[in-house]
Give the backbone structure.
Amino acid sequence: MRQSTPLGRFWAEFRENRVAVVALVVVVLMSLLAIFAPLISPQNPYDLANLSLLDARRAPGFVGSGGYAHLLGTDPQGRDLLSAIFYGLRISIQIGLAAGLVALTIGASLGILAAYLGGRLESLIMRIVDLQLSFPAILLALVLVALLGQGKAQLIGALVAAQYAYFARTAYGAAKAERGKDYIEAALATPLSGRVVILRHLLPNCMPPLIVVATVQIANSISLEATLSFLGLGLPVTEPSLGMLISNGFPYMMSGRYWISVYPGVALIILIVAINIVGDQVRDQFNPRLRK
Amino acid sequence: MLGFIIQRFLQAVVVMAVMSVIVFCGVYAIGNPIDIVIPPDATQEIRAEAIRRLGLDRPLWEQYFIFIGNLLQGDLGRSFVYNIPVLELIGGRLPATLELVLISVITATVLGVSLGIYAGYRPDSWLAKTIMAVSVLGFSVPSFWVGLILILTFAVNLGWLPAGGRGDTVLIWGVPWSFPTLDGLAHIVLPALNLALFKLAMMIRLARAGTREIMLTDTIKFARAAGLSEGTILRRHLLKLISIPIITVFGLELGSTLAFAVVTETIFSWPGVGKLIIDSIGVLDRPVMVAYLILVAFLFVTINFVVDLVFALIDPRVRHGASA
């Protein structure tokens, strides 16, 4: 019976790929960990009263002054790494999602407007978008973060500016193809306003490719944010994302205290790879050429 | 064709002008550079004198036009921190970056094309499947993380290779290079590998897709019918046919690898331009930041201009579409 709805059919097809299902479960689990981090973490890693420098840089399994074992060891400030990873996931996912969704909104609006209106505006918007796509996103984000300064809003702004062009290109391509089809011509011939045609008819038919790009770009924002934080250009030290945890541990790696960098890194990689696998499967399902 | 060239050239000039304004104003907005240049216990007179000497007391637009005027004469200003001309500073760091980027891109291309051809030639073998699975990882794993793992494995745990720096260098035409010495080569392996892995995945996919397509064409069928050995077919015919897109991508990727060198150079303390820019951002060395960004913008605008021209030469639809 679930087969009858489009969403049910989509899920039935998705379920056939075991790897993708596992990846989806991992993404959901990690999101839950991030959401409930304050409830499940053994320690609040940002409450200085909880931290003791005596516990700093201890190996995994060390029982600290808090009376419990630090399963993944502690960092240079004496934070429990497991708790720091949960909180880091929270920040990384937050920023990735926020940047991805804002970039999606801005990019899709620009792309669809360019395709719908045509003419000079179309060539102006797409010229800018193409120009930006020829620059590497990492460089653009790096420069913007350097220019805007540190902070969550600035970081999200830089990520959005570095990524909106991908959405604009995708939306433009899809909307341009739909724009020429008869149903849009028919809708335009009715007294419906342009706004209604765009929102009710054009936008929904541009969604599939945009969803695919969105999954990949959210993973990319998370990875970009981690890179920037690692370079010391991302968030302020008071809000360590996964990238900053890795960066904090880097100087200690040479002396064999690998866990400070490695465990946050493993969390980051698992998150990014899982999102990408889910995105790949969704892409394959939306691609009619690969349909059986 | 001439009209097309002029049009694209003007576009490139406009883009450069806009970029220079954005970069200049943007860099001007961060922090107050004067606090870095003079010691905090300096008197008011020394402070005012330093501000005047650096031209920071003039209005922003005036500073911009002075900057552009100097730029056109090949003068990009002096670094606040090192107090030498910026061009000299960047020029001194450029060989290290070029060396690293060239070795990485060439390694990535040679390895990637070989692996990609194999994966496309025998798509169902387990080795081909492994290659493709690993290349998916190459796409998703952030480059800085790969660098860390390389250091942890080969420098810390195994102790085979050094973790940072350039090692011994040799002067060729007055410029230091690392690759001719054994110690320098040992230093370059890890950062070059780090940078190459980032590009490898794409090269593999490109070569594989090209191979799969071309193996089905008549060219290959007739070559086989003529009794040529598989090795000759691959070398003489396939490689020639897939090389066109690969050379294009090679050129384009050279630019983006230069950008990514920022990350790799920071991890491996490689004294190139990328490390310089990160350090300059840290200490708000404005002239270096502005000069670096303008040079990078110039590099990309030039690459795009050349690529546009080459495509227009190959494909007449491009030039007619643009002039219409």
Observations:
- Residues 36 and 283 of chain B are 7 Å apart (CA to CA).
- Residues 93-286 of chain B form a domain with the MetI-like fold fold (CATH 1.10.3720.10).
- Strands of chain B lie at 170-172, 175-177.
- The first helix of chain B runs from residue 2 to 29.
